[in-house]
Amino acid sequence: MTPSGSRGCKSGQRKLLPLFPVPHYLILAVGCGVNMPTLAISLPCDGCGIPASAEHIAERVRRLELSTRFRPIHIGILFVALAPPVRPEDDFYAPAQSKEFFDPFLNALEIPAAAEGIAPGAGANAADTARLMEFQHRGHYLAYVSECPLPENYEPASTTIARLGPTLIRRIRFNYRPKYVAPLGKEMLPLVEMLRGGEPGNIQTLDQGLVLPTPGTGSREWAALFQRAVASVAPR
Ligand SMILES: [Zn+2]
């Protein structure tokens, strides 16, 4: 956008907004950019597509900072879940206070809870951070279809994947560039279909396109299934 174009947008909104309270997406549709500091209405977050407050954007940036600390230079396996947990302190890379996902996931990858090199009395957080470092060291990374938590019962998983899957696939191709993608959970089947339907040079999914079980859920055999799939591409 040219500087003159930007001024045009701003002046246009100042005139129009009191008269025509049009939805933000229509304002965007006529070419006003997101980098206008005077814009007082919420814009769609580029992580989840939902109109976002300043607090929402701040939380998104915080999550990105947390995960970037543990991002491998070369990603071997990119695990993909639907969306991060609602509470920021439960974010996987925080590291998560809630262990519902964190522990079974890392246990299945045989990244031990009592990591070596942790000073006695250093605390649970130091031990969890050491586990995340080992996760990173092995070339693993965890990403989401929606980079922000979704409101409860906001939409079916298939809708989220249809809405945000193409953006995720672009991130996979041009940003993450993993050797393998491993969607986590049955709800991710539509994503596998999307990945399969891609262009030539398409993205390899773990376990021949099967989704992996969500760690800690489902049948008792989930851990064996999970370990077998990971070991098939990342033997230790
Ligand atoms: Zn968001």
Give me the count of strands: 5
Oligomer: single chain
Top CATH class of the largest domain: Alpha Beta
Largest sheet: 3 strands, parallel
List the uncertain runs. 1-34
Question: How is the largest sheet built, in terms of strand order?
Answer: 4-3-5
Mean of all residue-level pLDDT scores: 79
Structural class by helix and strand composition: mainly alpha
The proportion of residues in beta strands is: 5-15%
Helix content: 40-55%
Task: Please tally the helical runs, counting DSSP H or I stretches of 4 or more residues.
Answer: 8
Hetero ligands: zinc ion
Q: Indicate the CATH architecture of the largest domain.
A: 3-Layer(aba) Sandwich
The dominant shape is globular
Q: CATH topology of the largest domain, what is it called?
A: Uracil-DNA Glycosylase, subunit E
Distance between the termini: 50 Å
Whole-number radius of gyration? 21 Å
What is the helix/strand order?
HHEEHEHHEHEHH
Tell me the number of structural domains.
2
Task: Give a structural overview.
- With 236 residues, the protein is mainly alpha-helical.
- The protein has helices at residues 3-16, 24-29, 54-68, 99-108, 124-137, 157-176, 189-196, 222-233; strands spanning 43-44, 51-52, 77-81, 140-144, 180-183.
- It has 2 domains: 3-41, no CATH class; 69-233, Uracil-DNA Glycosylase, subunit E.
- The chain is built from 8 helices and 5 strands.
- Zinc ion binds at residues 45, 47-48, 50, 52, 56, 60, 148.
